[in-house]
UniProtKB/TrEMBL annotation:
Record Pfam families: IMP_cyclohyd
Enzyme class, spelled out: hydrolase
SUPFAM superfamilies: Archaeal IMP cyclohydrolase PurO
Protein's name in the database: IMP cyclohydrolase
Function: Catalyzes the cyclization of 5-formylamidoimidazole-4-carboxamide ribonucleotide to IMP.
Single GO MF annotation: IMP cyclohydrolase activity
Family annotation (InterPro entries): IMP_cyclohydrolase, IMP_cyclohydrolase-like, IMP_cyclohydrolase-like_sf
Inosine monophosphate cyclohydrolase-like domain mapped to chain residues: 3-188
EC number(s) reported in the record: 3.5.4.10
Pathway: Purine metabolism; IMP biosynthesis via de novo pathway; IMP from 5-formamido-1-(5-phospho-D-ribosyl)imidazole-4-carboxamide: step 1/1
Domain of life: Archaea
Gene: purO
Biological processes annotated in GO: 'de novo' IMP biosynthetic process
Record field: catalytic activity: IMP + H2O = 5-formamido-1-(5-phospho-D-ribosyl)imidazole-4-carboxamide
Length: 196
């Protein structure tokens, strides 16, 4: 197994878009996900002055769901009010850039659109920067992660709800898994769940 750190994916299941966030962590395994309305936050439970380990992780809009590994979540969601998903990722990831920690941890982000088979992924690392507009494929997920992965396409197991999606995500074969969040488009709005 590979240590990928924070890992996120976007895909399509039974014609509906989904996104997942898999929080893997060696250094800060005590975290929890807090749901507040149409947002989810990661809260670190141990004493630290590290500014990168508690943050908004998901924000749901009528048309889009945004998932990232840092404070860029809220900036991207706000930018979607007037820019395309691609431009929102380019502008916000370029502005904030990678994290200034001892690993130069990349900022990663994913966006899916309600009622649409398109998705977007972005990656801002010290030596690598990209934004991809992707045609999502049923039963597959496009994935990016902070370490040792860059970009990959995975077969994603079938699920029927955001709860099941989060359960499938926490079963993915990556190291040091802490929790997984599932975001699945429903007929009206988005389903949201965490596992465990
Ligand atoms: N978003 C997160 O949950 C998160 N967790 C840890 N980091 C950063 O990544 C560094 C390495 O963490 P780890 O050893 O858990 O992979 C941490 O010192 C911190 O600066 C994070 N920053 C970005 O992924």
């Amino acid at each position: 197994m590979t240590y990928t750190g924070r890992t996120l994916g976007i895909g399509l299941m039974n014609g509906e878009p989904f996104a997942f966030y898999l929080l893997c962590s060696r250094s800060f395994p005590k975290r929890k996900a807090i749901f507040k309305g149409r947002a989810v936050y990661i809260e670190n439970m141990t004493e630290t002055d590290n500014p990168y380990v508690s943050y908004p992780v998901v924000r749901l809009l009528d048309d889009y769901a945004v998932v990232t590994n840092g404070l860029q979540t809220d900036f991207i969601a706000q930018t979607l009010e007037w820019e395309s998903p691609r431009k929102a990722l380019v502008h916000v990831l370029d502005a904030l850039d990678y994290e200034r920690d001892s690993y130069s941890t990349p900022r990663i982000a994913g966006i899916v659109e309600h009622g649409n088979g398109k998705g977007w992924l972005g990656f801002a690392g010290r030596d690598e920067f990209w934004v991809k507009s992707l045609e999502l494929k049923d039963g597959k997920a496009f994935v990016t992660a902070t370490y040792n992965l860059s970009f990959a396409e995975l077969d994603f197991p079938a699920f029927e709800s955001a709860e099941e999606l989060a359960e499938k995500a926490i079963e993915l074969p990556f190291e040091k898994k802490v929790l997984a969040i599932g975001v699945a488009a429903e007929k009206k709005g988005w389903g949201l769940a965490v596992s465990p």
